[in-house]
Backbone:
């Protein structure tokens, strides 16, 4: 054996978890662990988890079950991080006795020490929330360049306490990273070849609002937009109640800000929105959508929809369908409501029957599928600027994204990865576009 140890990371959930997994890989590099895509060869397997939906949590436990037999066959370490780890802590070590370590969302910095202890046979769980000053100094940041795109964490946590949402309990209260550090990280990334950044946070719209003297999110976007060599800026996720007129104006004023926004409505009924504690009405949401479309004609809007929330009637549900038709989303993430620990909605009366919830989910997804196909068909014959991100899943084509965040597959030389190219769209599919390369920018 050469002494090099192999690390395999399986990531569930949102882009924040993807960013955290990148940080885990960077931290463990100093412990002699090199990344591998083969879990069967790994000396350390880290499962970065999501507990926002009950189904996602169950998927994690099912995945962990795969390793019970493998642990009997060969020696390797198994760790769990992310939101399920934060939620369960020591209970996870008891429930999964073949697990070696559990680290919560505030404890990435402890991982090297925990791995060293696990290598000596010590099982540990670390899920304490840390104070804000320490948290600011330990904010996840990308330490190495890797490709043309980069996730950059700008804030963490959430103070909204939507009645269905577990995020404040597993990610903690809201805190914004120092803007000077964010700008410096992006400058360094651009110098290393990054052309597009995606700013991450549970609610990026509220960036800086709790920090006296700090930039607002609109101000941060303007600072980042001024960085020479950076070509595209994206952000996620965006809470509708905190979208300011100044932020909407950025879509008109900043060419580098991509023509796409993920704006979760969750429901179309004022009654359900109030029970969800979303902080806006249907009309307020639609007014902000209209303002965004006016600021950036052609902006692509995606969203989230929850069906079967406690107390949701057929009329409430029909209002959600009508909201979808009015917004004309490019695409959505849609979910059947599932109660999560500690959330207010878990105690609500008026549970909707599982069969009815599933029928509503099917109707939402059918409507969105039709709208997405119609939207994609509208791009056929147009020429789109595409940032090439890699090889497609088929392996014989390149893929990239338009300014509006649409996936485009096309034939081309792998040497184009990282380049901006012009692609003429030839076909629209439910999940992507097909095109032909025309020019390289």
Residues:
């Amino acid at each position: 054996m050469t002494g090099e140890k192999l690390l395999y990371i399986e990531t569930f959930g949102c882009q924040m978890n993807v960013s955290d997994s990148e940080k885990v890989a960077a931290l463990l590099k100093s412990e002699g662990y090199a990344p591998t895509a083969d879990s069967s060869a790994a000396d350390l397997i880290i499962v970065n988890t999501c507990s926002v939906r009950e189904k996602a949590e169950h998927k994690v436990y099912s995945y962990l079950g795969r390793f019970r037999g493998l642990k009997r066959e060969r020696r390797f370490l198994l760790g769990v991080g992310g939101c399920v780890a934060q939620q369960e802590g020591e209970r996870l070590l008891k429930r999964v006795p073949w697990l070696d370590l559990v680290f919560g969302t505030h404890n990435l910095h402890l991982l090297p020490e925990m791995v060293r202890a696990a290598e000596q046979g010590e099982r540990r769980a670390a899920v304490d929330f840390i104070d804000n000053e320490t948290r600011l100094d330990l904010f996840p940041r990308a330490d190495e360049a890797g490709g043309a795109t980069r996730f950059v964490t700008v804030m963490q946590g959430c103070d909204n306490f939507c009645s269905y949402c577990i995020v404040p309990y597993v990610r903690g209260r809201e805190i914004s990273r120092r803007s000077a550090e964010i700008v410096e990280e992006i400058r360094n990334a651009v110098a290393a070849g990054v052309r597009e950044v995606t700013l991450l946070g549970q609610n990026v719209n509220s960036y800086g609002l709790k920090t006296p003297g700090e930039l607002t999110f609109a101000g941060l976007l303007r600072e980042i937009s001024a960085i020479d060599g950076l070509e595209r800026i994206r952000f996620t996720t965006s809470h509708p109640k905190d979208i300011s007129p100044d932020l909407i104006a950025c879509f008109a004023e900043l060419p580098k800000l991509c023509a796409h926004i993920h704006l979760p409505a969750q429901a179309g009924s004022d009654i359900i929105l109030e029970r969800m504690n979303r902080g806006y009405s249907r009309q307020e949401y639609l007014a902000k959508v209209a303002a965004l479309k006016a600021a950036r004609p052609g902006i692509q809007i995606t969203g989230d929809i929850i069906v079967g929330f406690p107390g949701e009637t057929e009329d409430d549900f029909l209002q959600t369908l009508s909201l979808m038709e009015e917004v004309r989303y490019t695409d959505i993430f849609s979910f059947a409501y599932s109660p999560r620990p500690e959330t207010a909605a878990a105690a609500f009366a008026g549970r909707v029957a599982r069969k009815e919830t599933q029928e509503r989910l099917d109707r939402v997804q059918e409507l969105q599928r039709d709208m997405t196909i119609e939207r994609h068909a509208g791009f056929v014959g147009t020429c789109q600027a595409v940032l090439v991100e890699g090889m497609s899943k088929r392996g014989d084509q390149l893929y990239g994204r338009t300014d509006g965040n649409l996936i485009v597959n096309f034939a081309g030389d792998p040497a184009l990865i990282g380049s901006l190219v012009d692609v003429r769209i030839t076909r629209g599919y439910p999940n992507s576009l097909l095109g032909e390369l025309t020019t390289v920018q």
